[in-house]
C-alpha cells in the first residue's frame, strides 16, 4: 500500500522540470563535496608517512631510514595508482607538451 502511494508520488513529482533541476543541483553539490574530500586526502597522504616517521623517531632514535621511507612512499603511490586504474578506470597519464600516455597494460 505504501509502496504504491510512494511510486505514484514519485512519478508525479518527476513529471515536472523543477524536480529534475533540483536533482541536478544536488548532484553537482555532492560531486563538489567528493572532489574536495579527494583533494584533502591527497594533501594529507604524504603527511601520514611523515607522522609515522616521527612516531617511530620518538620510540627509537632516528625514525625511518631512507630505504624504509622510500618503500612507504612507493607503496602508497602503488595503491593510489591501483585505485585510479582499477576503481576509477583511468589508464592514461598526461605528459605536458606530449599528450596522453596510456599505461593500462603495464598496471594489470
String of helices and strands: HHHEEH
Uncertain runs are none
List the strand order in the largest sheet. 1-2
Helix count equals 4
Strand portion: 5-15%
Write down the overall geometry: elongated
Class from secondary-structure proportions: mainly alpha
Q: Indicate the radius of gyration in whole angstroms.
A: 23 Å
**Strand element count:** 2
Report how far apart the termini are.
50 Å
Helix content: over 70%
Overall residue-averaged pLDDT value = 79
| Biggest sheet architecture | 2 strands, antiparallel
Task: Kindly list the characteristics that best describe this protein.
108 residues; mainly alpha
Task: Give an account of the 3D structure.
It contains 4 helices and 2 strands. The chain is mostly helical and 108 residues long. A two-stranded antiparallel sheet has the order 1-2. A hairpin with a 3-residue loop joins strand 1 and strand 2. The chain is elongated. The model has no long low-confidence stretch (mean pLDDT 79).
Amino acid at each position: 500500500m505504501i509502496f504504491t502511494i510512494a511510486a505514484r508520488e514519485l512519478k508525479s513529482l518527476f513529471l515536472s522540470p523543477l524536480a529534475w533541476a533540483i536533482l541536478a543541483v544536488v548532484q553537482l553539490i555532492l560531486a563538489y563535496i567528493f572532489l574536495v574530500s579527494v583533494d584533502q586526502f591527497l594533501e594529507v597522504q604524504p603527511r601520514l608517512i611523515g607522522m609515522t616517521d616521527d612516531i617511530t623517531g620518538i620510540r627509537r632514535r632516528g625514525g625511518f631510514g631512507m630505504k624504509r621511507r622510500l618503500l612507504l612512499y612507493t607503496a602508497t603511490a602503488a595503491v593510489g595508482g591501483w585505485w585510479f586504474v582499477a576503481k576509477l578506470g583511468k589508464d592514461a597519464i598526461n605528459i605536458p607538451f606530449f599528450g596522453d600516455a596510456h599505461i593500462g597494460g603495464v598496471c594489470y
